[in-house]
Amino acid sequence: MLQRDYTTSQLDVLEAEAIHVMREVAAEFERPCLLFSGGKDSIVMLRVAEKAFWPAPIPFPLMHVDTGHNFPEVIDFRDRRVAELNARLVVASVQASIDAGRVMEETGRRASRNRLQTTTLLDAIEEHEYDAVFGGARRDEEKARAKERVFSFRDDFGQWDPKNQRPELWNLYNTRIRKGEHIRVFPLSNWTELDIWHYIQREGIEIPSIYFAHTRKVFERDGMLLADAEVVQRGEDEPIFEAVVRYRTVGDMTCTGAVASTATTVEQIIDEVAATRITERGATRADDRASEAAMEDRKKEGYF
Amino acid sequence: MDILRFATAGSVDDGKSTLIGRLLFDSKAIFEDQLEAVERTSRDRGTEYTDLSLLTDGLRAEREQGITIDVAYRYFATPRRKFIIADTPGHIQYTRNMVTGASTADLAIILIDARKGVLEQSRRHAFLTTLLRVPHLVLAVNKMDLVDYSEARFEEIREEFTAFASKLNASDLTFIPISALHGDNVVSRSENMPWYEGTSLLHHLEHVHIASDRNLVDVRFPVQYVIRPHNATNQSLHDYRGYAGQVAGGVLKPGDEVMHLPSGLTTRIRSIDTFDGALDEAFPPMSVTLRLEDDIDISRGDMICRPHNQPQVAQEIDAMVAWMTDGVRLQSRSKLVLKHSTRTARTVVRDLQYRLDVNTLHRDESATSLGLNEIGRVTLRTTQPLFVDDYARNRQTGGFILIDEATNSTVGAGMIVDAH
Ligand SMILES: Nc1nc2c(ncn2[C@@H]2O[C@H](COP(=O)(O)OP(=O)(O)OP(=O)(O)O)[C@@H](O)[C@H]2O)c(=O)[nH]1
Ligand SMILES: [Mg+2]
């Protein structure tokens, strides 16, 4: 009997850790919310939330910061998933922030609402008095994220101070804050891109169609394939062509690149991700290419 | 496939981050764009070689100062295992971040610069890793390229460290001579050190046996959250009451007789529920939901254990405390918030028994307070009973954090040595 080997597979360990984190938040905070963008990480996070509280419903609302530049397939998916779960969705709109004069729309070919999202997000957190906000960020995504705690303290201005993070030992999380401050919580901190895909496969989780190979009108910029769409500003010198592509990450249409791919199943995506030699953000995100410390700087301002 | 969590430790500039960079690079866990970015930065700074430490030193301030400030977590997998790496800072000022990284580690690699030998900070980190009960230690003697790959130098350091380690509770200690910069003995055995008969570092990481490090004997289930669906449309859920939590010790099975603390009432496990169906058994680190045969008033912070194997129910606790702030000092009568498993209580320091000199392990009983990075043995009294075990027996039910009520900062980490 004692011969049994009580090893636990990596996905089970990661899932157990994420469930523990979610329950800790539900137990210790008054007004948590979960950021749900319809991207693969937040889809996995939502599934973990479903598991953490089952058979009870998820005890907090979902929030989407809608830039107005999202892929329509992803918005459809978002709404379908929310309806299925009978969850409450709060949409924080960047367009509304622009209309209210809280932020200024960038202009020019590379205009993006990526950075503007931070203001919309922080305003929404303040308006709804959220004290804990779940994000699907993973430490393997980017080198500044690799430094962040699972429970990441944000001051009154939503700022992250990377040089002064709270020690975080074992699985004991310090959840104490003052009014106006909040904690960003990252239950998937220790998952890698491959773990996410293996989990999607194992759980049979549905994902938006743009993750799979499809034919799309695109144009090339900085070695990336951007979608041809009304919201994406394109120059005369950037001709459109058709290509078979898929998305590795889902962000704004203006700054998220597609990769050439023929993967039409999750199995094929896993093979592709396992063989790739370029990180997902390196391959697909113009916003991270701006400078060496682009992510750190945005995070300090209160970005996801 | 299982997971091995390991942390680096050692003095500033001993090569921790370079080693992690090398490990990632040689095991092909580095992507082209990451490597290009690091090569570009190295070139811009006029470094002749590619500075692999830049792969983990991701903060602006770290790159500017060439040191690690906070833990970086990195991931890689070989066909045998998935690895979660915590690359920790060597600088004394950031010891609390090292402690953060080491607290969850199955294994720690303590680096020593072969030229410098065992430094005070190497001793401090070695001591901290044993205090935190990291079950496996590797002493990596680094920069062997700078001492002509000398076996004599390696042996000298091995002896010096062994003498120090004999005073610690170091359970499993392995010595490996390496060059993080050039890759000797990191992923494969080096031809520069034919006298070394052990395995490469990666081989050791892949094979070290960790399954028996968990406590599968003492059943401990700290109740984290009570699940009550209150579902109006689904009658079958109307009376559902489940106790959710992460198993901290032992193996639980349906039908087992269990005891609830603090009430002392006993009942049986009716079922072990998960979203994916009921389970035949649960053990660490699984997150599950228990339903019990009898209706007992149970809430967050309570403990479920076995009638004949209970944790201490204690309000007086003796613990080794690592102090992590320069804001206030820990001293007799300090009032703090203590978080232990799923229970939070207020606590007052009754007595600082001694402060430990991490260099000599001398106990200074005349000390009256602990400052930043100091370690001492304290007696605490809590406002509520806690359900504790010795840290040596269970890291989950033996560890706690201390929080300063004025600033809400985490200011101390405690490891229970005795309770009553
Ligand atoms: N010659 C030689 N140099 C090395 C070796 N390993 C590291 N170095 C150099 O030592 C210096 C410090 O290396 P880091 O990896 O940043 O040291 P660290 O231990 O991470 O330092 P902190 O994190 O700040 O404590 C760098 O210049 C490295 O290139 C080695 O094996 N041989
Ligand atoms: Mg370092």
TrEMBL record, chain A:
InterPro entries: PAPS_reduct_dom, Rossmann-like_a/b/a_fold, SO4_adenylTrfase_ssu, Sulfate_adenylyltrnsfr_sub2
EC code(s) of this entry: 2.7.7.4
Keyword ATP-binding recorded: yes
One of the protein's GO biological processes: sulfate assimilation
UniProt keyword annotation of Transmembrane helix present: no
Family matches, as Pfam families: PAPS_reduct
Cleavable signal peptide: none
Primary enzyme class: transferase
Domain Phosphoadenosine phosphosulphate reductase, first and last residues per copy: 32-257
Molecular function per GO: ATP binding; sulfate adenylyltransferase (ATP) activity
Region entry Disordered, spans: 281-304
Taxonomic superkingdom: Bacteria
Record's keyword terms, sorted: ATP-binding, Nucleotide-binding, Nucleotidyltransferase, Transferase
Similarity comment: Belongs to the PAPS reductase family. CysD subfamily.
Subunit structure, as described in the record: Heterodimer composed of CysD, the smaller subunit, and CysNC.
NCBIfam families listed in its UniProt record: CysD, PRK05253.1, PRK12563.1
Name of the molecule in the record: Sulfate adenylyltransferase subunit 2
Organism: Planotetraspora kaengkrachanensis
TrEMBL record, chain B:
Positions with a binding annotation for GTP: 10-17, 87-91, 142-145
EC number: 2.7.7.4
This protein's pathway: Sulfur metabolism; hydrogen sulfide biosynthesis; sulfite from sulfate: step 1/3
Domain of life: Bacteria
UniProt key word ATP-binding: yes
Keywords: ATP-binding, GTP-binding, Nucleotide-binding, Nucleotidyltransferase, Transferase
GO terms for biological process, alphabetical: hydrogen sulfide biosynthetic process; sulfate assimilation
PANTHER family, per database record: TRANSLATION FACTOR
Family classification: Belongs to the TRAFAC class translation factor GTPase superfamily. Classic translation factor GTPase family. CysN/NodQ subfamily.
Record's subunit section: Heterodimer composed of CysD, the smaller subunit, and CysN.
Protein name in UniProt: Sulfate adenylyltransferase subunit 1
Provenance organism: Planotetraspora kaengkrachanensis
